[in-house]
Specification:
The chain is α/β, with parallel strands linked by helices and 158 residues long. It has helices spanning 6-10, 28-34, 78-88, 106-119, 134-147; strands spanning 19-24, 42-47, 66-69, 95-99, 122-128, 150-155. The protein contains five helices and six strands; from the N terminus they run H-E-H-E-E-H-E-H-E-H-E.
């Protein structure tokens, strides 16, 4: 994932573009992203924890699958992250959350599941496969079933 200049993003060949990964370093990057031809491809965005949730004023336009990545999310970041999701996720979206190098506790995951259920549109949370021991995974998966959000443990360390 990288950060592109507006001119580069506008010149992308939308018909050939199948996936795009961008890093949102500022809230204004959302407007740039929405104006791009990237709406018709699988979209991965990485959100910098340095951006204030209050800075986001525009939702991401609805399109194909939206994957939101936040690196090194911790329990103390959940309030910020929930506010960011609330501001960014489009209505009736199909969104997945990827959490590489995540440091959430099991109670943090439970809180994230509840917040995601309340927000709606989030279908899946992806974690690194070794983040929790097998018994904790089973307990979290049971809780996730009640929210209709799938937990995935398939990706490895970055």
């Amino acid at each position: 994932m990288g950060h592109l200049r507006e001119s580069t993003l506008q010149n992308l060949g939308a018909k050939r573009l199948r996936k795009i990964g961008l890093r949102l370093e500022t809230a204004s990057d959302v407007d740039l992203f929405n104006a791009s031809p990237a709406i018709d491809c699988y979209r991965h965005i990485c959100i910098s924890k340095r951006v204030s949730a209050n800075d986001f004023l525009t939702k991401i336009r609805r399109g194909k699958l939206l994957c939101i990545h936040v690196v090194a999310l911790e329990d103390k970041d959940l309030s910020w992250f929930t506010k960011v999701l609330e501001k960014l996720i489009p209505d009736k979206s199909d969104t997945e959350i990827y959490l590489p190098a995540c440091s959430l506790t099991d109670s943090g995951v439970m809180k994230l599941l509840q917040d995601a259920r309340t927000l709606g549109g989030i279908k899946r949370l992806w974690f690194e496969k070794d983040i929790f021991p097998p018994l904790e995974k089973v307990l979290l998966e049971s809780a996730a079933e009640l929210t209709r959000i799938n937990l995935e443990w398939d990706f490895t360390h970055i």
